[in-house]
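Shift notes (night). Ran ABC-2 type transport system ATP-binding protein while the centrifuge was going.
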Amino acid sequence: MLDAIGLTKRYGAIQALDGLTLHVGDGEIVGLVGHNGAGKTTLVSILAGLNKPDGGSVHVDGIDPVRARDRIGIAPQHIALYQSITVREHLRLFGGLAGLRGRALAAVITELVEALRLTEFVDRRAGLLSGGQQRRAQAAVALVHRPRLLLLDEPTAGADPETRQALLDVVKDRARDGASIIYTTHYLPELTELRATIAVAQQGRIIARGTSAELLDRLAGEVLLRFDVGEYRTATHDPSATLVDLVSRARYPIRGVELRTPTLDDLYRSLAAADVH
Ligand SMILES: Nc1ncnc2c1ncn2[C@@H]1O[C@H](COP(=O)(O)OP(=O)(O)OP(=O)(O)O)[C@@H](O)[C@H]1O
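Came back to this:
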């Protein structure tokens, strides 16, 4: 569905993208993670056709993104709403620009107002909304024309738990309907909930790509045993096997046991630690 191959982008002395390649299939949610400055926002803006790469190619359903605008929905990291019109007017405007009319447009607006809990402020001007309300409105604008490719750049930054959950539920629904989704976040547990595959960006490239299980396999977990005289802690790639082995060899009574399997946060930290900015 989305094919980005060998993308490069330079801002003066900064190489923001450095040969970045990414494929996203139909119905796939890709969690795009990486250090600040890794190139995620630059990538998203190029995939949306809002920014031109210096080199490489992007195809959305085989088409250049600039000509595939009505198939793409983007919720940018920085809010981009018109201050003086209401949320409903935004949805009518962007739905209309993508060719939606009449009942079809009204139906999708009703659905989004409910799903993203916009009822309370849908008829208020965007400039008067709180930060979290603006984020929800921005997500609704990205979703209103049922895009085939959805680009969500930190959509839950600063959102309260209810808002976050509502957004995650809508994203899962859209993926079930076949949309391809790129979801940029620093909140890694969200990607587990979305059952997203993960793409790790670093210095303008994707340096790791796979399911969270595949990526976490590389990381060590930990086993901790507590004794009356102190504790013993060891890193391991197979915590349960290590525990069985340690218990069989223990010379003192064991007073407590803790197993820690690696999490997505460990993955993020390990890659961030390897970053050489
Ligand atoms: N318009 C611009 N002009 C100059 N440099 C830019 C511009 N946009 C991005 N950069 C630089 O390009 C690099 C990649 O930035 P980008 O915003 O794509 O990173 P990011 O991964 O989205 O970061 P974050 O997690 O902080 O949002 C950074 O070094 C940034 O300073």
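Residues 2-211 form a domain with the Rossmann fold fold (CATH 3.40.50.300). Residues 11, 14, 16, 34, 36-42, 77 surround adenosine-5'-triphosphate (CB under 6 Å).
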